[in-house]
Amino acid sequence: MIGLRFAQPGVENPAGPVTYGCLLCKRRCSVSGRMIIVLFGAPGAGKGTVAERLSEHYGIPHVSTGDLLRAEFAKKTAVGKKIRDFIDAGLLVPDDVIVEIVRKRIGRRDCSNGFLLDGFPRTVEQARELGVIAGERGEVVKVFDMEVPEEVIVKRLCARRICPKCGAIYNLEFKPPKKDNTCDVCGAALVHRSDDRDEIIRVRLREYEKRTKPVLDYYEKKKVVFRVSGLDSSEVVEKIIEKLGPPAGRV
Ligand code: G5P
Ligand code: MG
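Above: the input record for the complex with magnesium ion. Below: its predicted structure, written as tokens.
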């Protein structure tokens, strides 16, 4: 599928968001152009699980701000030391730090045909920054909000294990690794995230309610939000693909 963008990168389109059309089939197909897909939802909603699968399907990178931050503190960088206390306490790291990290990551070549954001934006200020970035790059932002009840979230997170090396996500109850505590993909020892403890999960959920939920209102006004039940991540993936259409090059 050959994509044609109807607006120029960096040029504001007074008619609304930049749209895309397909030269061959004449249909509007959002994935034929450059797009920023935002996976939105509370901690444990399944953003990372869904992003892994969509990233493979669409051949675009999965940019998780949580993973980027954990990589910083694993490398013991100056930024890493500054943010560790926020993450361990379940609080959001400051906007300027996170925006800088995101700008750097999406400036890499693999993001030039669009990318999936998992965990960003998480404040209205971050959403405004993303709007600026999207405008500079001539990209459209689409937001998928995954809704999951709090009791389900706490249960999921207490049993989550992650691979610190390749980022694969497991769950002792619902998706255990084939071999005890070992990543199926790369063989590394799995870890229980320091912020996946009951009392810290509750703090993260409060942060979400207070500081992140208003981001949805911001995007609702722009009419770019698509809501979906997050109870079954496989269904979420199917619904998003149904909404976005086939990957570029496939009909
Ligand atoms: P993170 O790392 O972005 P959260 O809190 O947003 O952390 P989290 O916990 O990583 O999100 P998730 O990615 O939404 O959750 O969920 P997941 O890992 O895919 O799934 C959770 C569990 O449920 C897994 O065990 C999975 O197997 C299971 N599961 C998934 N789908 C299903 C299903 O369909 N059924 C069942 N039964 N189970 C399922 O951010 C961490 C910290 O970094 C900082 C903050 O301090 C934050 O607390 N941070 C930021 N700070 C400021 N601004 C930002 N933009 C920041 N981004 C990160
Ligand atoms: Mg995650």
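Notes for the reader.
Residues 1-32 have pLDDT under 50 and may be disordered.
The beta strands are 3-5, 20-22, 35-41, 62-64, 115-118, 140-147, 160-162, 169-171, 225-229.
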